[in-house]
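Example (one chain per record):
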Amino acid sequence: MIAYPFTYRRAQSVKDAEAMLAHAPDAKLLAGGHSLIPAMKLRLANPSALIDISGLPELSYIRERDGGVAIGAMTTHSEVMDSDLVRHRIPALAHLVSEIGDPAVRHLGTIGGSVANNDPAADYPAAVLGLGATVTTTRRSIAADDFFTGMFATALDEGEIVTEISFPIPKRAGYAKFANPASRYAMVGVFIADTEAGIRVAATGAAGCVFRAQKMEAALADAFSPEAVGSISVSADGLNSDIHGSAEYRAHLITVMAKRAVAAALENRT
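Predicted structure:
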């Protein structure tokens, strides 16, 4: 294998990272590295520089704020999963994180890295969109509905860094996932939340980008029960199809996982 050169620099602060990005526009931020490093090994990414922001204490925290839970971008999956605050206020979020990868992944991977990368099979985007969270960056605040724009694509501009994700507290919420047995990525994962703004249903793994299932939202608004979504068929048009499952199979899984997510939400009222 032919190696290619790149520089590695560790940022001392968010401002430092911004300055580094300004001087190397094709550089990549390194958080947990579980998506970026494999992409580099496969030559899907070839940055001239890696800017390591994983050790910034200013981006690692979990706090209750303004009636919600604010999580710093460099907070690891395991820290979110083990947080008493998250478990008490949004148990469905703690459960979702427990479904991510394995202990090694959860101890290194970060919420900000996952959200910024927007892998179509990642778990966190379902929680962010399902709960109607707000993504804060070095420049602005972005509503979840506006943040995820396509496969591995987000509303982030060049040089913009995710600093925090703020989750409102739902009345009840649940997450159900059908995982690939090898990678533990979601073939389909569905997050359902009964929020102050209404019912939200977000599906990950099924398509090129996390999306809301609006027919299910309407049905659950009338009757919040597994039976309300059990009769809703999701179109296979535009869904992923690969060696692990066809688009039609994933469409069926959305309904199955939605029923399980509603059942979990009814058990985990907050």
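Caption: The chain has a mean pLDDT of 94.
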